[in-house]
Amino acid sequence: MEIDSPELALPPGPIALARAAHVPSAAEPPLDCPLCPRLAAYRDDNAARQPGWWNAPVPGFGDPDAWLAIAGLAPGVQGANRTGRPFTGDWAGLLLFQTLEKFGLSSGVYAGKLDDGLSLHGAFITNAVRCVPPQNKPEPAEIKTCRSFHAARLAALPNLKVIITLGSIAHQSTIKALGGKLPKYPFGHNAVHRLPGGMIIIDAYHCSRLNTNTGRLTPDMFEAVFATALSLKA
Ligand code: SF4
Questions:
Q1: CATH 3.40.50.150 describes domain 24-231
Q2: Best mutation site among 38, 54, 130 for ligand 1, i.e. most ligand atoms within 8 A of its Cβ?
Q3: Ligand 1 contact via 60 beta carbon (within 6 Å)
Q4: Whose CA is closest to atom 2 on ligand 1?
Q5: Distances 37 to 1, 42, 44, 75, 145 between C-alpha atoms, Å
Q6: What percent of the chain has pLDDT over 70?
Q7: Phi-psi category of 179—alpha, beta or left, where left has phi over 0 and alpha has psi -120 to 50?
Q8: Which of 116, 126, 138, 146 could pair covalently with 60 via S-S, beta carbons 3.0-4.6 A apart?
């Protein structure tokens, strides 16, 4: 059989397959979501530079029956924006996936890519903002616009009891997504907040390279947050 071009001979990779299988919903925006023009333009710029990357809103990942959600801020450009899975492929994912494994919330071996076979059990990871922002800084209007997806994502987890929010912006957006009033729930590492609807929110410093390299967040401190979550599961 004659092959017209080398590309035709290659099977689609995991990112292409996942993109083709993506089903938009209230909880998961379409891959070409236009609602934040600045972020949509940044996605397009990244796609032009790195066409093999995900370069789209990053869907949540994990167990649909999760009792625990972990809410980050937004994809990193060379992490989730590259691989298509939250916290996958960059520094922040190392401590997070290591901790999930330690607490029995994952199986398989984390290898920083979409097709590493990792599974979560009882846990789900998502981001308050689904598209990568320039300099890791979403604008307030972008956080607000994406909150409808964040709220729907959390609402679509029927067994959810506890949410660990990573960093103050994820904390604030998650409180608002659940209908809470911010001044009542000040951010603090390992602080526990009980919302009127019954949801429990626990704050953690973000597991970013900056926080872990400076010692603002140590593995012990991060694990303490997950221990708190497990103690409140019942
Ligand atoms: S951040 Fe959210 S609302 Fe904004 S373009 Fe991306 S998916 Fe759409």
A1: no
A2: 130
A3: no
A4: 146
A5: 45, 9, 10, 17, 11
A6: 96
A7: left
A8: 126
